[in-house]
Specification:
globular, two-stranded parallel ribbon, 378 residues, 8-stranded mixed sheet, alpha/beta, homodimer, 16 strands
């Protein structure tokens, strides 16, 4: 297995207005993307990778002059890796509203000449998928061999089969859910409140003041991070270990290693992530609910996907999107007699497992992609 | 079953310095307490109730002129109730560092003449129990018939048997744990960071500025509240219900009922609770770890309690202090051949179940207290 090496992001501008679920539309927007591998002659070997909350188009490879800049799914995507770039043409795309290059709240609203800020339209999973579909067509691909994503990325993969079922064959949705539970929404809401009540948030118009609601972003990330890890893996990694070997009897300084770790995660995140993007992306999570339009009948929602093929993967210790949530999707597909493979991986790492290199997990993805490759003669 | 009716808090001042685990000591401190029922002639029918994070000495009954001021465990304590005040003399005491009357960070440090603020000593479960033991003695009670508490209150009940085993017979510890897990500490730490990074916190010296870190307290309470409820009960109560019937596509306003509920809980809490108290109490939770001094051997920690009797109760859907944590305590007691009864209640309400009136739960407490009453001829 080799590495992809140095990759370069591209960008594509779109002039045609994109109608959004919220009723507004976006015109003159840009999507940033990367590609790995080569598109074959009949453009049948393309695989789209959808990103989750804090990731981007930079799925694999490195950026020039930036050591340790491996893409977020570099362990999966590359020559000889489970998603093999010697066989597939892999596309990573940054979603609208993000802070990694595609049009978002930190950019200028062409209609007003001012920074969007909190006025950036509230985009949804469906909007993202529609924008991705335009990009894919512009790259000369009428039909994707597969779309793959984990967590929020898995929701996008599912949405492809509902909105553009003829333009994709296989859907690989990992560690995802058919919608958020009340508890999932609750965690998102606390994170949002931490951000929006930060005095530096200024109602979402902080760019022009040259400030950043870093305190809120830190707390938001700390909350999120707890939900990405399993109770057991946190216990195994940190337990009750003290940072200085003995108690300091302090309420404001760090006593336990887990505190140090969480603060570090929060600090790092607040330095690179945008607060308005955090709000937009958590809302996209909250809103995703394909069964909603069918009175909660998920099987009815999946009728359009009847010619698609699915692989679902969940992880036993994922309490954010527990295996039971994936099984709801499997049941809806089976009820429609849609071909679905399902793997429940016994992994200790909680929700984050979808990003890690687990032998059984990657073995399943490798085998599935080999089947896809055989179909398209990749 | 009747109600206790109107009750009045009392206070007791202590001049003798109380040595604390942190190495400091508190002199000239006050404890606020309430009592219900009558102490019998040989002072053998007293039961101490220990409070958890946001509660107080006001366990049962009402305060004069304050409708809806029922104590926090009024469903348990009263004439004819499971902890029957016609048979027992019940004591509720507010812990040191609290914001409900006992000496705390909002009071004046007699040594400096200035408000304690963040300089209030970091008190522990063991310190609280030592202070409670002095109060109990001052009330003329050499030995409690029982000590009872839930959650952090359960930790105090356990600590009584380790620090003052001869001064209490029965320990009833509900929905508690022998220590916090890394995940438990992590949630506490995020809540503390929300408070301490609120610009109105001023390093814990906000009283003299006439401000309150309300934003931080709100977020802290929202986080805590999620961990008190089970995923299922939140789902059953709120699900994905929208507040206005249709999506508003907004990142800052309320969309879902669960958001409205959490914000309300946060707002209410920030109006009555003190930020320094929140820090102190979460630290007391973090620090509690009786096995810590015995290399993690919980059975060794419980050797002093060999003449005590225990009832432990846990709730199936409590993911903050799961039944497995109570079972660790049961095992440590059994390893010491200490008499212990254990009930695992199949209740849907998560950690909060210990405050609710569940028939099986209250039935078990009633039966246990009847046994205790028979022993002391109450």
């Amino acid at each position: 297995m080799g590495s992809i090496g140095v990759v370069e992001p591209h960008q594509m501008n779109f002039r045609d207005a994109l109608p959004l679920q919220c009723g507004a539309s976006l015109s003159d927007y840009t999507l940033v993307y990367e590609t790995y591998g080569r598109l074959n002659a009949d453009a049948s070997n393309a695989v789209l990778v959808c990103h989750a909350l804090n990731a981007s188009h930079h799925v694999a490879g490195m950026h020039a002059g930036a050591p340790r800049s491996e893409g977020w799914w570099d362990n999966l995507v590359g020559p000889g890796k489970p998603l093999d770039t010697q066989r597939f043409f892999v596309i990573g795309v940054n979603n609208l509203g993000s802070c990694f290059g595609s049009t978002g709240p930190m950019h200028v609203n062409p209609a007003t000449g001012r920074t969007w800020g909190a006025d950036f339209p509230v985009v949804t999973v469906e909007d993202w998928v529609d924008a991705q579909a335009r990009l894919v067509r512009a790259l000369g691909i009428e039909r994707l061999a597969a779309v793959i994503g984990g967590s929020l990325g898995g929701m996008q993969a599912l949405a492809w089969t509902l909105r553009h079922p003829a333009r994709v064959k296989h859907c690989i949705a990992v560690a995802t859910a058919p919608n958020l539970s009340a508890q999932n929404i609750a965690f998102n809401e606390v994170a949002r409140r931490a951000i929006t009540t930060d005095p530096e948030f200024h109602g979402g118009h902080y760019y022009e003041r040259g400030v950043v609601p870093a305190r809120g972003l830190r707390v938001a990330r700390m909350i999120g991070h707890i939900t990405y890890l399993s109770d057991d893996s946190m216990e195994a990694k940190f337990g009750r270990e003290l940072r200085n070997g003995a108690l300091g009897y302090t309420t404001q300084d760090i006593e336990f290693q887990i505190e140090s770790y969480l603060r570090h995660q929060g600090d790092k995140f607040s330095e690179y992530f945008d607060a308005n993007t955090y709000l937009l992306i958590t809302r996209a999570l909250d809103y995703f609910d394909p069964a909603g339009a069918f009175g909660g009948d998920l099987a009815a929602a999946f009728v359009p996907a009847r010619d698609n093929r699915f692989l679902l993967v969940s992880f036993t210790t994922d309490w954010r999107f527990a295996p039971a949530r994936s099984r709801e999707i499997v049941k809806a597909l089976v009820d429609n007699r849609i071909a679905v493979s399902y793997a429940e991986i016994d992994a200790p790492h909680g929700h984050d497992a979808f990003l890690l290199d687990d032998a059984r997990y990657h073995g399943i993805l490798r085998a599935y992609f080999e089947r896809v490759a055989a179909e398209v003669a990749a």
